[in-house]
Specification:
The complex is a heterodimer of chains A (112) and B (120).
Chain A: E1 9-12, E2 18-23, E3 35-40, E4 47-50, E5 64-69, E6 72-77, E7 86-94, E8 100-103, E9 107-111
Parallel strand pairs in A: 1-9
Antiparallel strand pairs in A: 2-6, 3-4, 3-7, 5-6, 7-8, 7-9
Chain B: E1 3-7, E2 10-12, E3 18-25, E4 34-39, E5 45-51, E6 58-60, E7 68-73, E8 78-83, E9 91-98, E10 107-110, E11 114-118
Parallel strand pairs in B: 2-11
Antiparallel strand pairs in B: 1-3, 3-8, 4-5, 4-9, 5-6, 7-8, 9-10, 9-11
The chains are: A mainly beta (112), B mainly beta (120).
Chain lengths: 112, 120
């Protein structure tokens, strides 16, 4: 069982907006602005698409956006594209014991 | 362009040991912390360990501490993961470059992964 909770799957039609949630606790997502989102296509290297809750690295389309409220972080994909079909993983810093990098179980995004 | 190339994966018998390597290029290696993350079949990503840019600070997931050892050779731009007493450790192991010199989380470049299969 992963430390952060994500829905197993989310789907949408091209052009629609979808949101993926990532729920943690007051010791990780709720305590720090160290939340990351990765896009992972099968057989490829994961790609960082959001860091520090809501910052997009250079080259990431602005249809990807991140936010946080309390112990839950969210990734929104606006204007869904076929190439957005992938698994999305959230990650966060957690202060339990000496500190840890936590991951969610991943969310499969399907473009209908 | 940042490139990370893992090697050393393969078949290992239960109880065995293995060392994974990651060759880095395209960036100033000792300026960044480096991380190993694994993904078991059908599971999500799981953080394994992180090492600071100078190599003096190491961090491990609780379940990995004592069995895995992360290290780096900055003179050769290489990251390593030594695995001991392998049992249920079948997974793809990814090498990743972190955003900062001594950050535990946040990796902006990843390798393609090395598959490790623990089986008799």
């Amino acid at each position: 069982q992963s430390a952060l909770t994500q829905p197993a799957s989310v789907s949408g039609s091209p052009g629609q907006s979808i949101t993926i949630s990532c729920t943690g606790t007051s010791s990780d997502i709720g305590a720090y602005n160290y939340v990351y989102w990765y896009q992972h296509h099968p057989g490829k290297a994961p790609r960082l698409i959001i860091y520090d809750v809501n910052i997009r690295p250079s080259g990431v389309p602005d249809r990807f956006s991140g936010s946080k409220s309390g112990n839950t972080a969210s990734l929104t994909i606006s204007g869904l594209q076929p190439e957005d079909e992938a698994v999305y993983h959230c990650s966060a810093y957690g202060r339990e014991s000496v500190g840890a990098a936590l991951f969610g179980g991943g969310t499969q995004v399907t473009v209908l | 362009e940042v490139q990370l190339l893992e090697s050393g994966g393969g078949f290992v018998q239960p109880g065995g040991s293995l060392r994974l390597s990651c060759e880095a290029s395209g960036f100033t290696f000792d300026n960044y912390a480096m991380t190993w993350v694994r993904q078991a079949p059908g599971k999500g990503l799981e953080w394994v360990a992180t090492i600071s840019g100078h190599g003096r600070n190491t961090y491990y997931a609780d379940s990995m501490r004592g069995r895995f050892t992360i290290s780096r050779d900055n003179s050769k731009n290489r990251l390593f993961l030594q695995l001991h007493s392998l049992t249920e450790h079948t997974a793809v192991y990814y090498c990743a470059k972190n955003l900062l010199f001594d950050s535990l989380v946040g990796s902006d470049s990843w390798g393609q992964g090395a598959l490790l299969i623990v089986s008799s």
